[in-house]
Specification:
two-stranded antiparallel ribbon
Length: about 300
């Protein structure tokens, strides 16, 4: 059995996206209920509210300042109406992003090598100068930068959300110390990024790998994509953007990945990780029943495989 860390804070529910928004508080609350009912042995990783200056490791100051003061200045969304700014959104997004540092400390202090971070708002669409796609600050990017400060110099990011993590790619596009590997549905949000030809720039060339797939992909086709995980990148830690909106019961994509397919993918990722620390950060997943089942499979696999 693995000692698996778990991070959650009820404050994540304070990010109010409205009654009918698919990215809502019931996502993280339902996952937490699963953990409370079934996974009593998970190591609790505390949340933390860091300083806004910590966000400058991955975001532009003017953007952070704009979000901090946005609600008071009448801002209610970022770019499009689906990325909500409520009264507590800055506070919650700051807490979610900076709490990821405690998961790195969990690893660095030798308390465990696997963790699941039940976070909201999600983060992988947030670029250096803007949020979008339900995302305000880029949780996994900030975690990667702090991991490097803690001694995990080479970071492997795997993103299996059905949508391309344009924000994570944007932040590390010129960086050869962070490898970004993304599988995503080609004909889906954000539409204009994530082509296989996008491989990075400058010293970061070759450290971005996009594997866009066609509509209605099945388990067999999907799993073959992970045969292309880089074998020559000597990473120190693996961070996973765990977007469960690729499951067949989701309405936000056409993907036909089943729970069996998810389990097989998780085994591939954990085999690839070997004995290095690995953290799964919640991104998408909006059908609550499917989301909870998917996380259940993830936690069971983290414990036993």
């Amino acid at each position: 059995m693995q000692n698996v860390g778990y991070l959650y804070d009820p404050d994540f529910s304070l990010h109010d996206t409205g009654e009918f928004h698919i990215e809502n508080k019931f996502r993280t609350e339902s996952i937490n209920l699963l953990v409370e009912e079934k996974y009593h042995d998970m190591y609790p990783i505390p949340s933390r509210l860091g300083d806004k200056e910590e966000l400058l490791a991955v975001h532009d100051y003017e953007y952070v300042d704009w979000i901090e003061n946005g609600y008071d200045n009448g801002v209610r969304s970022i770019i499009s109406s689906d990325t909500i700014i409520s009264e507590d959104s800055f506070y919650v997004a700051l807490k979610a992003a900076t709490s990821t540092k405690n998961a790195i400390d969990f690893f660095a202090q030798g308390k465990g090598k696997r963790a699941f971070l039940n976070l909201r708002p999600p983060g992988h669409h947030a670029e250096i100068i803007t949020g979008q796609g339900f995302c305000i600050f880029n949780n996994i990017a900030l975690m990667a930068r702090y991991a490097q400060e803690a001694g995990y110099k080479k970071v492997m990011i795997i993103d299996f959300d059905v949508h391309h993590g344009n924000g994570t790619q944007n932040i590390f596009y010129n960086d050869d110390s962070v490898y970004y590997f993304s599988t995503h549905e080609k004909n889906n949000y954000p539409y204009v990024t994530g082509d296989f030809s996008e491989k990075g720039e400058g010293r970061g060339y070759g450290f971005t790998q996009n594997l866009p797939y066609i509509d209605y992909i099945d388990d067999k086709e999907f799993l073959t994509l992970f045969e292309q995980l880089p074998q020559d990148f000597d990473f120190d830690i693996v961070l996973v953007s765990a977007g469960y909106d690729l499951m067949k019961d989701e309405e936000i994509s056409t993907s036909q990945v089943t729970f069996d397919g998810l389990y097989e993918m998780l085994k591939i990722i954990l085999t690839f990780t070997k004995d290095k620390p690995v953290a799964f950060l919640l991104e998408g997943g909006y059908n609550i029943e499917s989301l909870v089942k998917s996380v259940d499979i993830t936690l069971e696999t983290l414990h036993t495989f």
